[in-house]
Amino acid sequence: MDRFELRRLDYSLTEDHKDLIAAYRQFFDTHCSIETVWAAEESGFDKSLWERLCAMGASSMAVGEQAGGDGATLVDLTLVAEEAGRALAPVPWIDHVCAARLLARLGTLDSVDIVEGKSLVALDPQEDAVTGQRLIPTGSIADHIVVRDGDDVVRLTFGTRPVKVDNIGKLPMAWVDPGAADSRTVLASGAAALAEYQRALDEWRLLTASALVGLVEETMTIAAEFAKTRYTLGVPISTLQAISHPLANMVITIEGGRNLARRAAWFLDNEPDERPELAPSVFVFMAEEAARAATMAVHIQGGLGVSAEAAATAYLVRARGWALAGGDPAATAKRIAHILAERESARESS
Q: Sign of the C-alpha dihedral, residues 104, 109, 112, 116?
């Protein structure tokens, strides 16, 4: 890809990108049916699916070559995240790769098992979590947990993993107290370390937004297929404006979120200081729109959509829960406002 292609608002993909999408879509179609998703809800994690996914290189691709990985770009990772979201895959791929990339940037990625996904590493994706106990989306299954603790970035390990708590996103979430860890290692301290941690938070929001794009596209497909076969007054309900217009709005959400995610990924990879508001912006956008789209998909299917056996219900709860795993999206919106205010102030000063 030309270095400036996505900056020029050209979101077309290369053949390699299309092959990457096809490979992971086939993988999830084969190994992650809705029955697999339901079966993993108690723990929030399908270990067999995770091992198969890592065997494909999904973990190692995200880490730079200098750290023993394959050096995929963030645009590449958004494509994989979309497919994981489309399948509601019960695996902590986003949390793991964002934490592993953070460790690599800090020069503390000292285990090939983390690169290959054999050892799970998690991070706290909340914008405003600075000290004390906090909910970690993959806290009940992670071997290592990276968090911000004051001015330090630390790695925690627990002899006995924290207990999973029930949550709307069906994630392996747990309360984690840094003070109760069996091992606490300071990885880095100071402004530079916290800036790298913020980069990890931005990457988490970017990839979570991409997963929500895939989720919305699949829930739209489910709703559209239902609407084409359900009749009222002798015509498919898909011909009614109350159905067709919301479905069209979903398409707009998908394309808008997808393009913004790819643009944000390009800037994070190539010019991270130029447009720092893009990654949090796509997260805030998709956090709101995914929940709205999934709710409409349930409404289109009527009583069937809200039944426990309906796939639409599984998509709805995750559309709401995945975004909340990073804390209140309003905290991210405030960060966007601060970025823009500082930029405007700098312009006025110059």
A: negative
The confidence score (pLDDT) of residue 234 equals 80
Angle at 258 between CA 253 and CA 264, to 5 degrees: 125
DSSP state of 164: B
Q: Given a cut of 70, is residue 8 above it in pLDDT?
A: no
228 has pLDDT over 90: no
**Whole-angstrom distance between the N-terminal and C-terminal Cα of the chain?**
35
Chain centroid offset of residue 219 CA: 17
Q: Distance between alpha carbon 156 and the CA centroid of its chain, in Å?
A: 22
71 Ramachandran zone, left/alpha/beta (phi>0; psi -120 to 50): left
On whether the CB atoms of residues 60 and 100 are closer than 8 A, the answer is no
In whole angstroms, what is the distance from residue 279 CA to residue 267 CA? 9
Q: What is the pLDDT of residue 348?
A: 85
Q: Which residue spans within 150-222 are E strands per DSSP?
A: 152-157, 174-176, 183-189
Could you tell me which of 331, 327, 260, 267 has the C-alpha nearest to residue 289? 260
pLDDT at position 307, please?
73
- Do 172 and 49 touch, CB atoms closer than 8 A? no
Selection from 86, 110, 313, 57 nearest residue 210 by Cα: 86
**In a 10 Å sphere around its CB, with 0-12 CB exposed, 13-18 middle and 19+ buried, how is residue 242 labelled?**
exposed
Contact 176, 287 (CB under 8 A): no
